[in-house]
From TrEMBL:
Stretches for region Disordered: 52-88
PROSITE patterns, sorted: START
InterPro entries membership: START-like_dom_sf, START_lipid-bd_dom
Species whose genome carries this gene: Vitrella brassicaformis (strain CCMP3155)
GO molecular function: lipid binding
Domain (START): residue spans on this chain: 183-304
Name recorded for this polypeptide: START domain-containing protein
Length: 341
């Protein structure tokens, strides 16, 4: 358990048809220009069939094909951009046709709402990243649990009612870079293939590569119902060769409509994420950190010793094996160096 359907909630106030910006699909994200700014807000696509009937599906309806001709925005994606970190097997997702949603303005939130969400998330990013790095790198209070299914595991207990925290590290060898691992995290098919408890996921809104909002649902265990999360995702370059992705639950994004009807309990992602560190020997360590309020009536002291809790970092071993076998699907907006924020 933790740390993308054309989907922006119709709950938000729609734009008028003449104000609705043209939408492009490149590597399956939906890009919404913010006014005259060159920056775009994007939303990844997962299976739209669960939100639309075949006749209404924006990915299959011929009415919504605006153009299939090449343009400046439609230029072929290079297999590896100049200056991009080299790695193992890289798979570039195929280019998508140009689509238009001017006849479905109810799918698009207003620019004002998007700006408000973006500003709220930006104001909280620095504190979230700082707290994550403090626990991901600190040594005080951690209890060594040894090696569990290939991962070096530690746990930390709190005495103020907060749930326990788990931390684990796996070495990924020299084949991959931090950007490769982050591409793996953004691939829902890969997530499902390596996490038996993962049910579904959707990127609700991606403002840029470094800031997004996502929804994830995990299957129920024993007598417990599924749990889902709406979380802010922050990507932060700590240093050249070291990148963190931090996840925290957020109330800044309106409750989405159109999510699967299956009943799930809204859990809280207090603090979670991954730290990818390039080492002097040319290999890369990936550390998982997670502190989650699952909304269960089980004492925290018991949870901190349960197998499902202690074995979470072992998912990194599955991730490494999956990447070694299948490579990674490189996102078109992935950075080419470590100069980002």
């Amino acid at each position: 358990m933790p740390a993308s359907s054309v989907f922006i909630s119709p709950f938000l106030k729609p734009l008028s048809p003449r104000d609705t910006p043209e939408v492009h699909f490149e590597d399956s994200p939906m890009c919404l220009p913010l006014g005259n700014s060159s920056k775009r807000v994007s939303c990844d696509t997962i299976s739209t069939s669960q939100f639309f009937t075949p006749r209404e599906s924006p990915l299959t309806s011929p009415r919504r094909l605006a153009s299939t001709t090449d343009s400046a925005d439609d230029a072929d994606v290079p297999t590896q951009p100049t200056g991009a970190p080299t790695s193992g097997a890289i798979v570039v997702a195929p280019k998508q046709p140009l689509l238009s949603f001017t006849d479905r303005p109810d799918l698009l939130p207003t620019e004002a709402v998007l700006r408000r969400i973006r500003d709220a998330l930006a104001a909280k990013k620095e504190a979230a990243v700082a707290e994550f790095l403090q626990y991901a790198k600190g040594m005080n209070g951690w209890i060594d649990c040894g090696t569990i299914k290939g991962a070096r595991v530690q746990r930390r207990e709190f005495h103020d009612g907060l749930p326990p925290m788990i931390r684990g590290t796996v070495n990924f060898g020299s084949k991959f870079t931090p950007w490769d691992f982050l591409d793996f995290l953004r691939d829902w098919d890969a997530k499902k293939a390596t996490d038996d408890q993962f049910g579904q996921g959707a990127c609700l809104c991606e403002f840029d590569y470094y800031t997004a909002v996502a929804w994830m649902m995990f299957k129920g265990m024993m007598m417990y119902e599924p749990r889902d999360f709406i979380q802010a995702l922050y990507t932060h370059v700590v240093a050249p060769g070291t990148v963190a992705q931090v996840a925290v639950s957020t109330d800044d994004y309106p409750e989405p409509s159109g999510l699967p009807k299956r009943k799930a309990v809204r859990a809280k992602m207090i603090l979670a994420g991954f730290l990818c560190e390039s080492l002097p020997d040319g290999t890369m360590d990936v550390t998982l950190l997670a502190q989650v309020e699952l909304k269960v009536k089980v004492p925290n002291a018991v949870i901190s010793r349960m197998p499902f809790f202690l074995e979470q970092p072992a998912g990194l071993v599955k991730a490494r094996k999956y990447m070694e076998k299948n490579g990674v699907k490189r996102k078109t907006n992935r950075p080419t160096d470590y100069s980002g924020k």
